[in-house]
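User: Here's a chain of 130 residues. Predict its fold as tokens.
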Amino acid sequence: SRRDGRIVNIIGGAGRTPRPAFLPGGTTNAALLNFTRGISKELAQDNIRINAISPGLTATERAETLAKQNAQARGVSVEEIKTESLQAIPLGKIVKPEEIAALTLFLVSDLASSITGAEILVDGGHTPGV
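Assistant: Prediction complete.
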């Protein structure tokens, strides 16, 4: 066996900041984050690096669907939901899928050969500090 590998878990931000309306997903994300950190030391013995990326609001079809559902549930326009979401993000923009892809490529490359057991937040500064 080569004894070499890379794993990148994409983990929702609800694993770090639980929301009452999303407890099952948040609990699952928290467990995956804990697993990523916990197993990294064991995997390191075989030169396997495991890291996590936690994206914030990302420009995906799912985000569009959720914005529509949220707008309908609250009786407001989709634009109002999007404006509210952007106002909660310090950088004032949503994440592009290409940003997550580029970070993944970096984490699996030799440029990141000393990074394992890490979580990188890609959310425009939305997640509160420790």
